Amino acid sequence: MKVKNAFHWTRSCSCVPGGIDISAGAPVELHKGTYYVSPSHFSDSIVRHDAIHYGCIVMPDNVEE
Hints:
Elements: E1 2-3, E2 7-11, E3 18-22, E4 28-31, E5 34-37, H1 45-53, E6 57-58, E7 63-64
Antiparallel strand pairs: 1-7, 2-3, 4-5, 5-6
């Protein structure tokens, strides 16, 4: 699965606040009925930490197989 349309992820929980642009085609994982951008997509360790612990949620209508 992957992101259909690019979007902006606002990381309000991070020690380094700020948004991240998520590009179309980013890999998506499904966990307990919620879609998330795969943490492995992020090269920055702080962003990856936020993606693992808080999740970069993708709306269901923005996911394609």
